[in-house]
Amino acid sequence: MGFDLLFGATVEVFTSGSLIYVFVGVTLGLCFGVIPGLGGTTALALLIPVTYSMEPLDAMYLAGGVMGATSFGGSITAILINTPGTAPNAATTFDGYPLARQGKAGMAIGASATASALGGLIGLFTLLLFIPLAKEIVLLFGPAEFLLLTVLGLTAIAISARGKLLRGLIAGGLGLFLSFVGTDMISGEERYTMGFNYLWDGIPLVPTLTGMFAISQMIELALKGGSVADENKDGINRRITDLWSGVAAVFKHWPVLLRGSLIGTIIGAIPGLGGTVASFIAYTSTVQASRNPESFGKGNIIGVIAPESANNAKDGGSLVPTVAFGIPGSAETALFLGILVLHGIDPGPTILLENEREVYGLIVALTLSAVAASVIGLLLARWLVLITFVNVHILVPVVIAVSLTGVYVLQGKPADVILTLVMGILGYIMIRFDYPRLTLVIALVLGDTAERSYHMTQMISDNQMWSFMLGRPASVILIIATLLTFFLPFARKMMSRKGT
Prior knowledge:
Layout: H1 3-15, H2 19-34, H3 39-50, H4 56-80, H5 93-101, H6 105-140, H7 143-160, H8 165-179, E1 182-183, E2 190-191, H9 205-224, H10 243-252, H11 254-268, H12 274-289, H13 302-325, H14 331-342, H15 350-354, H16 356-384, H17 392-411, H18 414-432, H19 437-460, H20 465-470, H21 473-499
Antiparallel strand pairs: 1-2
Helix pairs in contact: 1-16, 2-3, 2-4, 2-16, 3-4, 3-9, 3-14, 3-17, 4-5, 4-6, 4-13, 4-14, 4-16, 5-6, 6-10, 6-11, 6-13, 6-16, 7-8, 7-19, 7-21, 8-19, 9-17, 9-18, 9-19, 11-12, 11-13, 12-13, 13-16, 17-18
């Protein structure tokens, strides 16, 4: 199970002086999680250029601290002012905010902190169990399987956008098109560069991610105006009391914690679904299993435990396809792949074979951050919530300035800044018209792998790709999984119509 590697990574964190990077990441993750609309994706986008001069392992610690802390940070504003800091925290508002209105904000935050920490530990333990098995699976995969795996990942991402299948497919198609910009890997010819030498090596990932997530979100906040949270909003309760009663409630309702954590781990491992789907499924399944379902939405503490445990457990689950196959399971892990690329670590199966030290270092960082975020959050919740009252006209210029400066310093190319702004405008247009940005980003990340695997499969099969793939059991399984993923939503819709 790699316990020797895990123990070595733990000792290295505490003896090498790198522990500071974990806690810096936790602090940043909490701050960005508290601010609605930012979250871990924006934080990681801003940190990508910062990690350029860092050691790869220290960069893993910093990223792990951010990823493990934003989920709980977002629950603070979800409970106190009915404004989820991140999208997955939306389910927490259903019962967290009513508890705050009843003067039980401390109980809700205590339950959220404990459920987040324990959920994260359960999800990471699942990841630890899977890694040795994943290494064996990776060795069985060839170019055909990796081609089909990328197709399955893109299909799952497009399908996961409920009610937005066509928009998800359009966004994915645009991401694939952008991934083909540059020099053809077979012929060496230029493709879609429009005469710009800057695009010969393709569209850089870091400026794209920074613009798509950080700049676009700042544009939206700037156009909205005011502050992130309305200080004159009725019912805001910033009194933090009864924390320990919330902590005790999590242990009292441990089956809810376990169910939510397992749901989060499983959903997180499916590329494109992520924490939002996981938290809502955990919440609805808890309501359905309850003997008193009418109490939910009115301040039931179980309604806080279920989504928050799933939300943090998904971090471990989303790393399964990331570290095993190089397919990001969420927007945060897509940005995490950007950090890997920046430090010369090739996303995909070689991560498990050549970079075990970094992978286990990330697991240690996520484990520490899941616990540290809850402890720090409980101590600083009263002050963290004040960030939401900062005027966006102060917040937006600071974030944009840091983003563009970081992108420019990375390579010293003014074109990187221009690309970041262009992607920021494109990202805002996608937000405005409700197109999923995650689909575009993951398609951009997977496009190179898909094209390379396609050409390799064609050469290996002597241009008989379909017969070659149908003769390989793993390829057949992936083809069936892709077809089921694509047609299952249509089948469910038809069945629901017949039921009515």
